[in-house]
Amino acid sequence: NSISMSSSSSSPNNHPCAQPTLQRQECHMNHGIQNEECIREELTEKRCLAELHCQREAINFYHRSSSSSRTRWSCSALMEKFAFPENEMVLPERVAKEDREHCRKVVYDLARCLSRHGIGRAR
After folding, report:
1. C-alpha closest to that of 49 among 15, 84, 23
2. In terms of Cα–Cα distance, which of 37, 3, 1 is closest to 20?
3. From residue 52, how far is each of 16, 48, 59 by CA, in Å?
4. Which residue among 36, 65, 86, 101 is buried most deeply as judged by most CB within 10 Å?
5. What is the pLDDT of residues 26-47, one digit of tens each?
6. pTM
């Protein structure tokens, strides 16, 4: 699936996510759409679009959360560690069941919001 970009701006170059979108498109041209070589570019573009269109959901996914009892790792760090192995050393070795359940809901909320904006659909 390619991530589509919709914008009310007159020129795609004015879009806040134009650079990550261009980097993803170039990677797909060089490696193909179904190739894992472009996962970092795809996730970077998705983050930009999420922060633009789904601010609340993006904050819940991309940033650590704190409660009175403890700080929780960001769901993005836990879910995307395969694409960013340089972060693996700072992540916990095991993820608690409550953190997995929390992230499952956060991922669902973000995906639902992105889908409402037409992001994530193949063109």
Report:
1. 15
2. 3
3. 8, 6, 11
4. 65
5. 999 999 888 789 999 999 999 9
6. 0.78
